[in-house]
Design goal:
The complex is a heterotrimer.
Chain A (H helix, E strand, L loop, with lengths): L6 E10 L2 E11 L4 E5 L6 H9 L6 E6 L2 E2 L10 E4 L11 H11 L4 H14 L15 H13 L5 E5 L7 H18 L2 E6 L2 H7 L2 E6 L2 E6 L1 H6 L4 H6 L4 E6 L2 E4 L2 E3 L11 E4 L5 E16 L3 E8 L2 E8 L10 E5 L6 E3 L4
Parallel strand pairs in A: 3-8, 3-9, 6-7, 7-8
Antiparallel strand pairs in A: 1-2, 1-4, 4-5, 9-10, 11-12, 11-14, 12-13, 14-19, 15-16, 15-18, 16-17
Chain B lengths: L4 H29 L2 E2 L2 E2 L2 H8 L1 H33 L3 H16 L2 H12 L4 H8 L13 H25 L5 H7 L4 H12 L1 H16 L3 H7 L6 H12 L2 H31 L1
Antiparallel strand pairs in B: 1-2
Chain C lengths: L2 H27 L16 H8 L1 H34 L5 H13 L2 H16 L3 H26 L4 H8 L4 H30 L2 H4 L9 H11 L4 H24 L6
The chains are: A alpha+beta, B mainly alpha, C mainly alpha.
């Protein structure tokens, strides 16, 4: 672990009863970073987040914040904020009192309380709703109250559980901008959990892809999108045509694929997005099984000697009908080289 | 959650221990008393109890009244609940309030009213005499009929409430759909409403049946020493004869019948709905 | 038959059957005559006044009040933590705890009263009032657990975690964010418990002694002596008390959804 790490997880193992959810996880996060935990449900991302918040005691391993071991510091003394997926606003308190809740517990009252709560509400644009109850607000407004409630505590780390999943498309864009602005203005370290690759790619500085309680890949959105490290990550970020390399040869389900050039010697597999296939020319022959038009592109399902492949071309090109025979190629130079094949 | 198992147990145990010590333990000891004779275990108290024709009469009467009250409560309950569910919101709220209300009134007060109604000079007898049906007042008090009516009035609300919630949970379009498919009202009831509300019927039925079996106030006031039911018999055995063995036997019968009714009705409900 | 007319007839008959006896009791208690009769012979409040003059009624009313208020409060003190543990934690013996706590509903009250008399009061010379109090507490416990659990299950548990992350202790989170949100459930449980305990007869049958008697038991024994309308008057007064409580509860809590 580097000494400059702001938050670090060291050999963290988490379990519910006897069910191990996360095993020997190592991760360090820099101050001011915006990190996404990305993965399918059950991968351990939420569990990891809850342990950072102090809501779940690790079975073993350590959590350090600014160098100090906080593994056994209780949740109410950690300076870690959490915006719940359901927002978890207190239904019996007004918006003002929801935001004031933590400050009051710190012993802040009177004018200072007023100033801090109002400025917190102001920063999310909800000053005029101060006297409403949570039930009288829309989902998006409730989430902004939850955000303000956490932020007025000036946490060192702000955790967000699926922050965009309960919002409609328009609010999603709004909230994304809001989160980036809060992060820019305050410099708070943010970690959010999501199962949606688009959300992670568009919002995070760094993405931690998780699978089965372990980290599958860590990287910038560009890294993850362009150079997935494993077949799982490739599939998760939209590579549809994925093949392993076995004994120096690319393998399809029913036999080897002989490509034009030499295979990269350090790869365990190759993956192509539908866009990366060459259609209309090339050494291989396929039959169009199905075609669909999505406005900007045409998608084809091709029956080939290597199984069914998915290809996508510009919509401006002429269409092929089902049953048509097509030449195609899997260009080696475009393929993502997978380090692991799982 | 982030509570430990020990903490959760510490919160739950006081209530459980209290109920076990105050309720369970004394009852278990009482039940064991009916199974002991000097130093050995025996069921002679049970055979002895049931060989007495008076006891058998009381036992069968209790079962009979329980079954009859439950059956009639179900018939009236369906009609009333169906009518209530189909009322507009405001009227529905009021009717439900009216059904809940009697549950809050002391059963002693509710049962006492029947003395005014069914007594020698009560309303029913006045009516019968004035239209010339009888010359002599008819004896209603201290008959099975009086106990039956009293029990029905006491427990009908439970059945209606259970059926209202069952009917409300029924898919809204089920009845129109069945009608469109050509079912007559009898078929709609037997093939759509009954299967879909069976659970509510079971809940209501269990409450009414066990309530009637274990009723004390109604048979005490309206049945007196003539029309004994199991609870009044138990009271009599203890206070008149200091007979704790019979009391233990009756207690056991009451508990077994309550549980059995519960299980049987549950079984019926699941068996039918699997079909 | 016209279905609407049929419905209206059914509703009228059921309402008459359920509420009619209560109306008759009220009318009979306002009679000026010496015996219980309907229609009442003349109008007077003398039987209502008599209720307040009978000393045993006053004493047993106080006893019933004490048992209903104290027993329900005690049941809630035991029941709220238990409901909280049952709804927020998967206890290994959760079902067993639930069953034991629910027993007082299933086991006939008369048996419990007898058992307590025979194995607690008689052999240990245990205080009868205290035995009554324990019995009524146990009797109300299932209702308090059921109603409080229902309100807890309607309340998201993550608000407690949110409170803790904002600096509250866990006990603090319970009192600051859980209690205020289940307050009406607790009040409903209290009312239900109060009414159940106050009207309870079988449990108290065997647990009475010199100066220790609940009001319903006192009414039963008064009835054995005389059929004068004072019991009707008392019944009517009690019914009005219940109606008043339930009306207020319905008004402010929407009580009927908890019953």
């Amino acid at each position: 672990m580097s000494d400059s790490a702001f938050l670090s997880l060291e050999k963290l193992t988490l379990a519910y009863g006897d069910t191990v959810a996360v095993k020997d996880l190592d991760l360090s996060i820099q101050k001011g970073e915006l990190v996404a935990f990305l993965g399918p449900s059950g991968c351990g991302k939420t569990t990891t987040m809850r342990s950072i918040a102090g809501l779940l005691k690790p079975k073993s391993g350590r959590i350090r914040l600014e160098g100090a071991d906080i593994t056994h510091v209780s949740a109410n003394k950690r300076s870690v904020g959490l915006v719940f997926q359901s927002y978890a606003l207190f239904p019996h308190l007004t918006v003002f009192e929801n935001v004031a809740f933590g400050l009051r517990l710190k012993g802040i009252s009177g004018a200072e309380l007023e100033v801090r709560v109002v400025s917190g509400l102001n920063s999310v644009g909800l000053t005029k709703f101060a006297n409403r109850k949570p039930a009288e607000l829309s989902g998006g407004q409730q989430q902004r109250v939850a955000l303000a409630r956490s932020m007025v505590m000036e946490p060192k780390v702000l955790l967000l559980d699926e922050p965009l999943s309960n919002l409609d498309a328009r609010l999603r864009l709004e909230m994304r901008t809001e989160l980036q602005r809060v992060q820019r203005d305050t410099g708070v370290t943010m970690i959010f959990v999501t199962h949606d690759q688009g959300e992670a790619l568009s919002l995070a500085d760094r993405i931690v892809v998780m699978l089965n309680g372990a980290i599958e890949q860590i990287g910038t959105p560009e890294d993850i999108y362009n150079s997935p490290a494993s077949a799982f990550v490739a599939d998760f970020v939209g590579f549809e045509n994925i093949f392993p390399i076995e004994n120096g040869r690319l393998r399809a389900g029913n036999g080897p694929i002989e490509l034009a050039g030499p295979l990269p010697h350090d790869a365990a597999g190759l993956a192509w997005r539908p866009r990366m296939l060459t259609l209309g020319s090339g050494p291989f022959q396929g039959t169009v099984r199905g075609a669909s038009f999505s406005g900007s592109a045409r998608e084809y399902l091709l029956d080939t000697p290597f199984g069914t492949l998915k290809a996508e071309v510009d919509a401006a090109l002429p269409a092929h009908c089902a049953g048509a025979a097509l030449a195609f190629d899997l260009p080696i130079e475009k393929a993502a080289k997978l380090k692991r094949f799982n | 959650m982030f509570h430990s198992r020990a903490e959760a147990l510490a919160l739950a145990l006081p209530a459980a221990v209290f109920a076990a010590v105050i309720f369970l333990a004394p009852v278990v000891i009482l039940l064991s008393e009916g199974l002991r004779n000097a130093d050995s275990w025996t069921i002679s108290a049970y055979t002895g109890f049931l060989s007495d024709p008076l006891n058998r009469t009381v036992f069968l009467r209790t079962l009979k009244l329980g079954a009859m009250v439950t059956a009639l409560a179900a018939v009236i309950g369906y009609a009333a609940a169906f009518a209530i569910v189909n009322l507009p919101a405001k009227g529905k709220g009021r009717m439900i309030g009216l059904v809940v209300l009697p549950l809050m009134i002391s059963p002693v007060a509710r049962t006492y009213a029947w003395i005014v109604i069914l007594g020698r000079t009560g309303i029913v007898n006045q009516a019968l005499t004035s239209i010339g049906l009888t010359d002599e007042p008819v004896r209603f008090l201290f008959t099975e009929t009086a106990v039956f009516v009293g029990l029905l009035q006491l427990f009908l609300p439970l059945m209606i409430l259970a059926l209202i919630s069952a009917l409300e949970n029924m898919p809204k379009d089920a009845i129109p759909a069945a009608r469109v498919l050509g079912a007559n009202w009898f078929q709609v009831f037997s093939r759509v409403i009954l299967p879909l509300t069976r659970e509510g019927l079971v809940i209501g039925g269990t409450l009414v049946f066990t309530g009637s079996l274990t009723a004390y106030i109604t048979p005490a006031i309206l049945g007196g020493s003539k029309i004994l039911m199991l609870e009044t018999l138990l009271y009599q055995r203890v206070t008149v004869a200091n007979d704790f063995v019979s009391a233990s036997v009756i207690a056991f019968i009451l508990i077994v019948m309550s549980f059995a009714a519960n299980l049987l009705l549950k079984r019926l409900a699941t068996a039918r709905s699997k079909r | 038959m016209n279905p609407r007319l049929f419905s209206a007839t059914v509703l009228f008959l059921v309402a008459a059957f359920l509420i009619g006896p209560f109306i008759i009791i009220v009318a009979a208690s306002l009679s000026a005559g010496e015996t219980l009769a309907f229609p009442p012979q003349g109008f007077s409040l003398k039987w209502v006044a008599k209720v307040f003059e009978v000393e045993s009624f006053r004493e047993s009313f106080a006893m019933s009040m004490l048992l209903a208020v104290g027993g329900t409060a005690a049941a809630l003190t035991l029941g709220i933590p238990a409901s909280y543990a049952l709804s927020r934690y998967h206890l290994p013996f959760g079902e067993a705890v639930r069953t034991v706590v629910a027993l007082p509903i299933i086991v006939p009250g008369i048996i419990v009263g007898l058992a307590l008399l025979r194995y607690l009061v008689v052999p240990f010379n245990f205080n009868i009032t205290l035995a009554l109090f324990l019995a009524h507490t146990a009797l109300v416990l299932p209702y308090s657990v059921r109603v409080v659990s229902a309100s807890l299950n309607n309340l998201r548990s993550d608000i407690e975690e949110a409170a803790v992350l904002l600096g509250s202790s866990r006990a603090g989170a319970f009192f600051r964010v859980v209690m205020p949100n289940i307050r009406s459930g607790i009040l409903a449980a209290f009312i239900l418990g109060f009414v159940t305990s106050f009207n309870q007869v079988p449990v108290s049958l065997f647990l009475s002694g010199p100066g220790v008697r609940t009001l319903p038991i006192d009414m039963l024994s008064y009835m054995e002596i005389t059929y004068d309308p004072s019991v009707a008057a008392l019944s009517a007064l009690l019914a009005f008390m219940s109606i008043g409580i339930v009306f207020l509860a319905e008004r402010f809590l929407g009580f009927s959804r908890y019953v």
